[in-house]
Amino acid sequence: MVLIGIDTSGKQGSLALARVPQNASSVEDIEIVETVPLEGGTFSAQLIPQLAELLARNELSKQEISAFAVA
After folding, report:
1. Nearest CA to 17 among 30, 7, 4?
2. CA 43, 44, 45, 47 torsion: positive or negative?
């Protein structure tokens, strides 16, 4: 499962790409593949382009995203 984490709750934000194995039994099984910082004040302008680049760098499509975690 591919999970996208989005945090825009503070002055600085971030995106994270994680993989969760089908047989995951705990949080320790989650693999953080990559994180991307987002500059404060312009989250809405950066979010979609940065997400598209993150997926492209990891050879994934938006159809492969299983879930979002947002703060």
Report:
1. 4
2. positive
**pTM of structure:** 0.87
* Sheet with 31-38: strands ordered across: 31-38, 13-19, 2-7, 65-70
What is the total count of domains within the chain?
1
Tokens of 60: 């994934």
Torsion of CA 62, 45, 36, 28, to 10 degrees: -60
Q: What pLDDT digit, counting tens, does each position of 52-63 carry? A: 999 999 999 999
3-state DSSP helix/strand/coil % of the chain, to nearest 5: 30, 40, 30
CATH label of the domain that carries residue 8? 3.30.420.40
